[in-house]
Amino acid sequence: MRQPLGVILAGGLASRMGGGDKGRLELGGQSLILRVIDRLAPQVAALALNANGDPSRFADLGLPVLPDSIAGHVGPLAGVLAGLDWAAGQGAEAIVTAAADTPFLPCDLVPRLLLASEGQAHPLVLAATRGSAETRSKSRSGLIRHPTFGLWPVALREDLRAALLGGLKKVVLWTDAHDGREALFPSEDGFDPFFNVNTPEDLRRAEALLERA
Questions:
Q1: S-S: 6 plus which of 33, 44, 95, 207, CB 3.0-4.6 Å?
Q2: Nearest of 168, 85, 174, 90 to residue 124 by alpha carbon
């Protein structure tokens, strides 16, 4: 497979942070979204941002801004679909997504996802870590899946569109229906590479984690 395109998902409402763009919060003197760009851009052929509202507020990033094409804030799959539509216009086969509020995402995210997809007719893989926490994203294998971090095939975009228009919101219901796989990432000494900033307390934790990243 050719190198996939990358899409940063920034379409959430950030309600637990009081609204606004979480990706603009600063961590160690650099915004969260710039930290995500720095880690993801070298791994993909091109990069875009999924966000709703006025796109000019992201003009300084120099990235295409892709709004959701499905109305109603239906969740991250709407951003995935926007990315797949963009990728189809670029002649790409697949995209890799990452959340805008995850400053420690793995620098080998794309290679691990691609490795896990080998042999699939339509590459569909979610990032996963080991853990004992109860979560609705835990798979039958016992791994904790991270639904905003995945490899998504352009070939299934119309299927995804139909599912969203039919009311689907939960990522893993759709990936399981298409035999999606998991790519295991290490989370050593309690450090979660997919840690995301949802609350002011999370931002304080991220400051403490910064030295370990």
A1: 44
A2: 174
> Is 165 labeled as ligand-binding?
no
In tens, the pLDDT along 186-198 reads 987 778 899 999 8
Check the annotation: does 11 bind a ligand. Answer: yes
Q: Is 25 a residue whose pLDDT tops 70?
A: yes
Q: Does 10 appear as a known binding residue?
A: yes
Name all domains of the chain by residue range, CATH numbers in brackets. Answer: 5-212 (3.90.550.10)
Residue 20 marked as a ligand binder = no
Least confident of 14-18, 107-111, 143-147, 188-192: 14-18
* 81 known member of a binding site: no
